[in-house]
Design a protein that fits this description.
The complex is a heterodimer of chains A (571) and B (94). Chain A has one domain (55-569): Up-down Bundle (Sodium/glucose cotransporter), CATH 1.20.1730.10. Helix content of chain A is 69%, strand content 0%. Chain A contains 22 helices and no strands. Chain B is mostly helical. Chain B has a domain at 34-89. In chain B, 45% of the residues lie in helices and 0% in strands. Chain B has helices at residues 34-55, 70-89. The longest helix of chain B is centred in the middle third of the chain and has 22 residues, at 34-55. The radius of gyration of chain B is 24 Å and the shape is rod-shaped. Residues 1-26 of chain B have low confidence and may be disordered.
């Protein structure tokens, strides 16, 4: 029986890599029914702004932690990083380990108490408390722009995957998935987003896990895979993380360890994991401060394992695929590009049923990432832009309605953003550029505000503005004059991912410099206004009465120990 | 029930943030645990994939390592996980 006849004619555009069988279509259909059903079920519990924007602040550490990590498991995690693993080898795992774990633990142990005790609804909300309207407004506007563009990235990536794998019409994929997200988030708000993200977390893992398992079986284990890669790509090192980092010419990314440790580990990842409201919002929904501190630590354990389902398939692609993949702008007709490595691996191993689950994992990844963006956008727009600048002192019910409309409008705006994404050669490069435009400077401003009570309102605003301007300026200069890359990256052969690490680092340095200078020239705020916001002026509840295994710091230590062991094993 | 929007407790001057953070100062909803929804979904998927795997004995798919019959054991795993979650977190269970 030809399964393609089961697909509505409107879906079919051209032949994809695989055809779905009836059981695959049933699995995908059950997924859509379930996420919409959860949205309708939770609508009756979403009756206040706190319900809609903060899920009633009653999530356990596990639910908040899994939603925290799932919101990050968007399309780029599954497809983009598998592609990067094929292109750069295991270097791509730096974005999961040094580029995530220290930052997630830092969020849980150091920063969460300030976010949680201040009872802010968002990161721009914290900036309003710490620095005032101007800094908060600037941060909220940049976040809203970034969020919409990120949403567009998610949708575009998903539509491309559906087109490549299944031959589905790209526009149909964009509209169906995004409107589904819009409906369930508009109905249940953050409740619905978090519930679905936890469901999606399980589907992503259980749908994607078989590819590396079967891949390792075929390749003959890790050592067999390494041997095959060396055979297929003689003279290139794809399986060491730190060895080729002494000089940028020794690795395919064109980056050295300084940029990885300081640009990625200390700035870019800190910025993303500690100030990107998309992920922080999940933690703020925790039921108490211990749950809020524990949630990112739980997320960190799972984040460490994600390379198994994302990076490993890319490496296995280097080992077992009987042909080579090429950059998207180089691949010709009949050839495959890097972004197709994960779909190719799925088509290689997954038959009927399992393929449906794998496709559902991809769709779940896309939708969880998009739901995260949309729900965060609705919160920041409503509480950080609409309320302070357009309609103060309205009722809670009014803001709730505004949040629901924002969700729908955000989805529609991000759909249009999806169509500009394909102007960029690589999806990940594009997103990394966005991160360093806004996230790195934001991290500088937030962390200075949390750790330095002397920092003034003016310093917050001008520091943030200078950081954003620096990041955009470097991006534009390199784009217009490619030879200038050596000025900023100290190596003419730095690839886009390496460029953006340096860009983030320079932006952060600029934030610090400008903040210090402006602070020295302006009057500090009275300490009484900073209680609960700044280290040294905030009373953090003691955990001394708890057994060791119930303390977040204990598990953070275990997690960091495993992280160090992984660095050693794959050095 | 309406609640005051977060973040405006310091309007109009000096602020005092109270560290009353161990107690969730709000009502709790009695929502079916998310784990139950996960269980239902995995149970359905497990059954579908398991029986799909059985049909592969008569119609082997054109995939690498199809001789391992991954849908059989993966489907059984999903049924087991889903069944446990449905049982443990079913509505009404105390």
């Amino acid at each position: 029986m030809n399964p393609s006849i089961l697909a509505p004619a409107m879906l079919a555009e051209s032949g994809g890599m695989v055809s779905l069988h009836p059981v695959d279509l049933a699995i995908v259909t059950v997924y859509f029914v379930m996420v919409l059903g959860i949205g309708f079920y939770l609508k009756k519990y979403t009756k206040s702004g706190e319900d809609f924007f903060l899920a009633g602040r009653e999530m356990t550490a596990w639910v908040a932690g899994l939603a925290f990590i799932s919101a990050n498991l968007g399309s780029l995690e599954l497809m983009g990083w598998a592609a990067n693993a094929y292109q750069y080898g295991i270097l791509a795992a730096h974005w999961y380990w040094v580029g995530a774990i220290p930052a997630m633990l830092f969020l849980g142990i150091v920063m969460i108490p300030f976010y949680y005790i201040s009872k802010t609804h968002s990161v721009p909300g914290y900036l309003e408390l710490r620095y005032g309207h101007a800094t908060s407004g600037l941060s909220a506007i940049t976040f809203a722009v970034m969020t919409i563009l990120m949403s567009g990235v998610n949708m575009y990536a998903m539509a491309v995957v559906m087109q490549v794998i299944l031959g589905w019409n790209i526009h149909f994929s964009i509209w169906v998935s995004s409107l589904t997200v819009g409906v369930y988030v508009a109905l249940g708000g953050l409740y619905s987003a978090i519930f679905n993200e936890v469901v999606q977390f399980f589907l992503i893992w259980l749908g994607a896990l078989l590819v590396p398992i079967l891949g390792l079986v075929e390749a003959g284990g890790w050592s067999g895979m390494v041997a095959r890669i060396k055979e297929n790509f003689p003279g290139e090192d794809f399986t060491h993380m730190w060895g080729p980092m002494l000089h940028p010419s020794q690795n395919p990314m064109g980056v050295q360890w300084v940029a990885i440790v300081f640009g990625l580990g200390a700035v870019l990842s800190m910025g993303y994991w500690t100030t990107d409201f998309l992920v922080v919002q999940r933690v703020l929904a925790a039921k108490d401060i211990r749950a809020a501190k524990t949630a990112p630590i739980i997320g960190a354990f799972f984040k460490m394992a994600v390379p198994f389902i994302v990076i490993l398939p890319g490496l296995l692609g280097l080992a077992v695929l009987p042909f080579h993949l090429y950059p998207a702008n180089v691949a010709t007709a009949g050839q495959h590009d890097y972004n197709q490595v994960l779909p190719l691996m799925m088509a290689r191993y997954l038959g009927p049923g399992l393929l449906g689950l794998g496709i559902t994992a991809l769709i779940a990844g896309f939708m969880s990432g998009m739901a995260g963006n949309v729900s965060a956008f609705a919160t920041v727009w409503t509480y950080d832009l609409y309320r302070p600048f357009m309609k103060k002192n309205a009722t809670d019910a009014h803001y709730l309605v505004m949040g629901r409309w924002c969700t729908i409008i955000g989805v529609i705006v991000s759909i249009s953003a999806a169509y500009i994404v394909n102007r960029f050669g690589s999806l990940m490069d594009y997103v990394q550029a966005l991160f360093s435009f806004f996230i790195a400077p934001l991290f500088g401003t937030v962390i200075i505000g949390m750790l330095w009570k002397r920092a003034t309102k003016a310093a917050g605003f001008w520091g943030l503005l200078a950081g954003i301007s620096t990041a955009i300026g470097i991006f534009v200069i390199i784009r217009e004059h490619p030879s200038s890359v050596a000025w900023f990256c100290f190596y003419a052969g730095a690839k886009p991912l390496a460029q953006q690490m340096w860009q983030a680092l320079w932006a952060f340095v600029m934030v610090v410099a400008v903040s210090v200078i402006v602070t020295a020239a302006t009057e500090p705020r009275p300490e009484g206004e900073l209680r609960g916001l700044v280290m040294g002026l905030t009373e953090v509840p003691s955990e001394g009465h708890l057994p060791l295994v119930q303390r977040p710091i204990f598990w953070a230590g275990i997690c960091f120990g495993i992280f160090l062991v992984l660095q050693w094993i794959f050095r | 029930m309406e609640t005051e929007p977060r973040g405006d407790r310091n309007r109009g001057g000096g602020r005092q943030v109270v560290a009353d953070v161990e107690e969730p100062a709000h009502r709790e909803h009695h929502i079916i645990p998310v784990w139950f929804f996960i269980g239902v979904q995995l149970l359905i998927y497990g059954i579908l994939i398991f029986f799909s795997g059985l049909s592969e004995f008569s119609h082997p798919p054109d995939t690498v390592l199809s001789n391992l019959h991954a849908p059989i054991w993966w489907g059984a795993l999903l049924v087991a996980i889903g069944g446990i979650y449905v049982y443990l977190f079913r509505p009404g269970r105390k």
